[in-house]
Every structure is written in structure tokens, then in C-alpha cells.
């Protein structure tokens, strides 16, 4: 069982603001306030599908490209804008040593200006042709999954079920966790491997703060604020140095 220290929003905001070497680990709950559905909630994109993981798998992309493409198209929300969580994380990067490792593939952390960012599962807004290997604009992909130059299948550069991770992505994520004095987990159930395994690389003395609507299960003690991340990060924004 996790050893959980429950703290209020104000204290969480103050601890995060005071920390000097922070690594944020973020999930789908960070982007829901921007209008992007999560995956597994009652309003999530998996609802109504019998095998949603299959539809986001390498196997589906190869064996049933039309089904795969139809499912992936609904993941795009190009008009969505960063909310206060994305903006505060990007802003803190200008003040202190901040790294961000995100499960999200929606590009909002990038839009907000986070530079020290590791897109752990890739990005929908980076696409390439499986036949010729050329990069393809995402704007072309949402119109057709066929590359007009060679007829090959276009894919978003995201990690699908059944695919491995690039070594550099794993190394960068581990490094981001290793250097942190404070690790802030935001908007994720923290159950997807290998993302949730990153904590194995934290420094023994590093503090973990979890900002989430529900508790998560960790093998490490953590401070937990049960709240909408928007409210916590608004408080961080309001704290004056």
C-alpha cells in the first residue's frame, strides 16, 4: 500500500513553487480542461468500442488500416488550446530546472512553450510515410492516410500497442526523473507501463507530489492533493516570489 500524505491545494502549490529541480509527469487529465477527451472515463474515446486498444495497435494499422485510420482521426483536436496547467509548467521552466515527461500525444505542452519536454508516447502532429519514410504534414494525414507522393500508408509518430519505445526517449525520460528533487504527477492513473516504471529511477530523497482527482497506487510515499489540476495550478500562478 502507498503511504499517502494528504495535503491541500495551497500547500501543494507552495511546495511546487518552492522546488528548484522539478520533473512533471503528466497524463490525459491535464488536457481534459482544454476539451480533449481522456481514454477510459465515461466520456472517454474508448467508450462504445469493444476493443479500443486493438484499434490503436500496430496490428490494426497493418491488418485493418481503414478501421485504424477512422479511430485515430477522432484523436485530433487541432483547435484545442493549452490551459493553465500547460502554461504554468512552461512558465516554471524559465525560473528553475524543469523537465516534463508526458504521456499525452495532443501537442498542447508544445503549444504552451515547454522546451524541456519528452513526448513519451510521441505526437499526433508528427507523421511519416511507412513506405518511403518521408515526413508528412499532419494536415495531409487528416485528409487521407495515403501519401500522395508514393501511395504509401501515412501514420502518426505515436507509440501504438504492440510497438517498442525508442531507446533515446527512454533514456531521456529516465534522466529527467533522476535529476529531480521534486516529482509532480498530474492527471494520470499512473498505470500504463513503462511510464509508471519511471519512478524506479528517482533519487531516494526526492519528494513526490500527486495532483489528481483520485489517489494512485505507488510503492513510494507521496503527498496527495485530491483536486482538479486547474485549481492547483491557478494557485501556483498566483504565488508571488
UniProtKB/TrEMBL annotation:
Gene Ontology terms for molecular function: histone deacetylase activity, NAD-dependent; metal ion binding; NAD+ binding
Alphabetized Pfam families for the sequence: SIR2
PROSITE patterns to which the protein is assigned, alphabetical: SIRTUIN
Binding site for Zn(2+): 129, 132, 147, 150
Active site positions, chain numbering: 121
InterPro entries given in the database record: DHS-like_NAD/FAD-binding_dom, NAD-dep_sirtuin_deacylases, Sirtuin, Sirtuin_cat_small_dom_sf, Ssirtuin_cat_dom
Highest taxon of source: Bacteria
Region forming the signal peptide: none
Ranges where the Deacetylase sirtuin-type domain occurs: 2-241
Keywords: Metal-binding, NAD, Transferase, Zinc
Record-listed E.C. numbers: 2.3.1.286
Family annotation (NCBIfam families): PRK00481.1-1 (NF001752)
PANTHER family (UniProt xref): NAD-DEPENDENT PROTEIN DEACYLASE (PTHR11085:SF4), NAD-DEPENDENT PROTEIN DEACYLASE SIRTUIN-5, MITOCHONDRIAL-RELATED (PTHR11085)
Name of protein: protein acetyllysine N-acetyltransferase
